[in-house]
Amino acid sequence: MIEIKNLSHSFYVGKKGKEREIPVLNGISLEISQGEIASIFGKSGSGKSTLLNLISGFMKPGSGRILINGEDVTSFSEKQWAAFRLQNFGFIFQNFQLIPSLSTFDNVALPLVLEGVHASQRKLRVQEILQRVGLLEQANHFPNELSGGQQQRVSIARALILNPQIILADEPTGSLDSETEKEILNLIRELNRQQGITFFIITHDEEVAEISDKRFYLHDGALVNGGVSIEV
């Protein structure tokens, strides 16, 4: 489902014509199959976030290729990427990225609004998803009225609302206490097993990595052991 071939990327700092190259990723190659939970595990600064941004099209790689469902997305335009993300990806963020002025219901419904889904259909779909993540009773609550775990469940519900094949998660439990972390990880496992959703998670937390079918260890921009995944 996700295939990365010899992906490299650098940042450049300094004045134009005198830029200094800072390599961030070096020759990354990996494969993730449909229905797997895969994690990129590594310390801060290892290149995890850059890799996620490249896979999701928010950055263009310096070299290498990215294929999603066999389609080479490496040279997509911003317009192509915007449509592709909406159709294929859901996103879960460490800091939830909820809109403070919108209720739980409206935060989850936002992607449906952008897709032009009729209000009556939106209501049914959002209620279904909120029931799924255990937040139907909090539908009219605003983010500041929810716990951290509840806010992350709202984020997960929003990620699920368009039935994505792949969910990209950036430190999904990084802002949560250990007990709430377990609840969110159990929910991710449940969604993966029952709905076959592919999860691609970046994390520095070993407990998060342990729920994965595949773990890839990233160190200083390169995969440890030549990119061989560790089956768990």
UniProtKB/TrEMBL annotation:
Coiled-coil intervals, chain numbering: none
User: Which of UniProt's keywords are assigned here?
Assistant: ATP-binding, Nucleotide-binding, Transport
Q: Which Pfam families match?
A: ABC_tran (PF00005)
GO MF term list: ATP binding; ATP hydrolysis activity; transmembrane transporter activity
- CDD domains the record matches: ABC_MJ0796_LolCDE_FtsE (cd03255)
Q: Which SMART domains match?
A: AAA
Q: Has UniProt tagged this entry with the keyword Transport?
A: yes
Q: Which residues form the ABC transporter domain?
A: 2-232
Which InterPro entries does the record cross-reference, listed alphabetically? AAA+_ATPase (IPR003593), ABC_transporter-like_ATP-bd (IPR003439), ABC_transporter-like_CS (IPR017871), MacB-like_ATP-bd (IPR017911), P-loop_NTPase (IPR027417)
| GO CC terms | membrane protein complex
Does this entry carry the keyword Signal?
A: no
The record's family statement is: Belongs to the ABC transporter superfamily.
What is the name attached to this protein's record?
ATP-binding cassette domain-containing protein
Kindly list the organism's lineage. Bacteria, Bacillati, Bacillota, Bacilli, Bacillales
